[in-house]
Amino acid sequence: MSLRTQLSDLLPALLPQNPSEAIKGTELIRLVRLQLSGNYSDASLRYHFSIMSCDPASPIAKVEKGQGYYRRSAPVPALSGAQELLALSQGRLEDLNADRGAVDHALERVKKFRAIVRRFSEVNGRFPFEYRDAFTAGSPLGNLWKYPELVVVDWQTGEDSDEDMALESRMLSLKQRLGLPPFRLSATRLRIQASLHSFREDFFQTLSASMWTQGGELVYAAPIEDEALADGLRALNATFGVGVSSFGIGIETLDDLPRAANILNAHPKETEALMERINFDRIAAPRHRQHIDWGALEALRRESGETASLIDWVCDCIELGKASHYTPK
After folding, report:
1. Which of the two ends of the chain, N or C, has the fewest CB atoms closer than 10 A to its terminal CB?
2. Are 208 and 183 in contact (CB under 8 A)?
3. Rg over CA atoms, the chain
4. Above pLDDT 90, what percent of the chain?
5. What is the pLDDT of residues 271-315, one digit of tens each?
6. What ranges in 66-198 are assigned the alpha helix state H?
């Protein structure tokens, strides 16, 4: 029996499931030797640990930003996020041969995470616009590649307050005279948990859905602990520029949080407590383009009422000379 085959059999019982309890290579070698057949050097074992940790089918994973190994969990099913769920059923949730309770539970997680990202953006002086109609049951599967879950508008003129309204208006006017956009549109795609089996699809959907904006970002709820996964995302970022980040909210924590409606309507102190539970981690910074693809935006406006609403909202802010949060009409 080869060394790799033996390790594949032995490691699941020796590795901790929690990345925070990761076992160092030296200790793992000691434990493996107690059950291993054959005389292999430490260097050979360390080499196999490293190679196998980059293989999504192997049981061993290496922690990101640290030392040690842990047991890689089973591939996350499509129910881990709204778009994965829609992709699995091609927009028809009733076609899923799955436990209805599991489907509802998965969708509730996604609703919560949407609400968290929206509140996080607002607290940090950013202005989110949500796409919803593009992802309803019956929507074409191609919408996954055309529309982001959120477009976040960053105004370059100050906070959403009445105190500096005159200055904001003058800044908007100045940028218009100079031919500069007074805002930046960032397309954001949300996922619950990253996986070596699906991160490329997540990334390229984000890239595709952000081509008409000035940049894109892929945002995960759960922390990214797997070094191979983080390295894979950074490699894609280096070539294509889409940012990647994690809110550091584990699945159990997400399940314990209030429902999405409670998060969106929370009192300031409750929102502050929620923000303290976020452990934001920038895996790779986005690269923003200077200009919007106006042709692509116009094409989306003609086929999407939501995109038309986005444009109307941004135009209203410019006409008023003041950034404000979007309110559905």
Report:
1. C
2. no
3. 23
4. 53
5. 999 999 999 999 999 999 988 898 999 999 999 999 999 999 998
6. 82-89, 100-123, 165-177
